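> call design_seq(struct)
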């Protein structure tokens, strides 16, 4: 059982705990120096996805506009070509 835990963690549980504590202190120091807080990161990620969602629908609206503009030319041209080929 102990070997499976070591394999899962990548090292002994005590050494992994020490490494996690050291990295947590380092990351906490860096975040404090930049004035970053966990909730700020959460809100930034949330805002990113909301903006992506809104921009995505605007892009789909633009694609719809392009489709209608192109279809105004392509569909009648297609019908005319098909009618002209049908007579032959």
């Amino acid at each position: 059982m102990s070997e499976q835990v070591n394999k899962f963690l990548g090292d002994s549980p005590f050494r992994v705990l020490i490494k996690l504590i050291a990295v947590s202190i380092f990351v906490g120091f860096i975040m404090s120096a930049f004035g970053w807080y966990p909730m700020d990161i959460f809100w930034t990620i949330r805002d990113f996805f909301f903006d992506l969602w809104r921009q995505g629908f605007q892009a789909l609206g633009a694609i719809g506009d392009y489709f209608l503009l192109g279809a105004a030319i392509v569909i009648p041209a297609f019908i005319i070509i098909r009618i002209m080929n049908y007579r032959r």
